[in-house]
Amino acid sequence: MKILLAVDGSKAAQEATKVAIHLAKSMVEPPTLVLMHADVPLMRRVAAELGLEGTRKYHQGNHDFALKPSRTALRRAKLEFTEKTAVDDAAPAIIKAAKAGKFDLVIMGSHGRTALSSALLGSVAAKVLSQSNVPVLVVR
């Protein structure tokens, strides 16, 4: 089984990581597990001001911040995983990665770190649920 664990460093993402660990540990054969983070692109003016190297460092810092809690939890659970990062809006990046990687399941938190979210379900989770052909497990 191939599982894409999409995280953003939020509390909900940490809960999703716990669920992914529990699911992986319950399987007879360990799943192929990919930990993913998508960072929103900078506005062109900001990216131009930072330059290529500054922009790369900015996104790398955001990836590291978002992946660190899940990375730590997966290592403590002694689960093997790879990482995937993207500079794109989260929902399309997750959908594209799930389809291209032929994943069997996407696991993600219900609400991320964005300032705006709907009352019951975060906008990224709602978009992934409605547009993905891959089954999605949303964790609160």
Describe the structure.
By secondary structure, the protein is of the alpha/beta class. It has a single domain (2-139), classed as Rossmann fold. The chain is built from four helices and five strands; from the N terminus they run βαβαβαβαβ. It has helices at 11-26, 44-76, 90-100, 123-131, and strands spanning 2-6, 32-39, 82-87, 105-109, 136-139. Strands 3-2-1-4-5 form a five-stranded parallel β-sheet, sandwiched between helices. α1 crosses α2. The longest helix has 33 residues, at 44-76.
Question: Short summary of the structure?
Answer:
The chain has about 140 residues and is of the alpha/beta class. Helices cover about 50% and strands about 20% of the residues. The chain has a single domain (about 1-140), classed as Rossmann fold, CATH 3.40.50.
Q: What's the CATH H-level superfamily name? A: HUPs
Query: Low-confidence parts lasting 5 or more residues at pLDDT below 50?
Result: 115-120
What would the principal axes of the Cα set say about the shape? globular
Order of helices and strands, N to C? Answer: EHEHEHEHE
Number of strand segments: 5
Family: Belongs to the universal stress protein A family.
Pfam families: Usp
Domain UspA: 2-140
InterPro entries: Rossmann-like_a/b/a_fold, Universal_stress_UspA, UspA
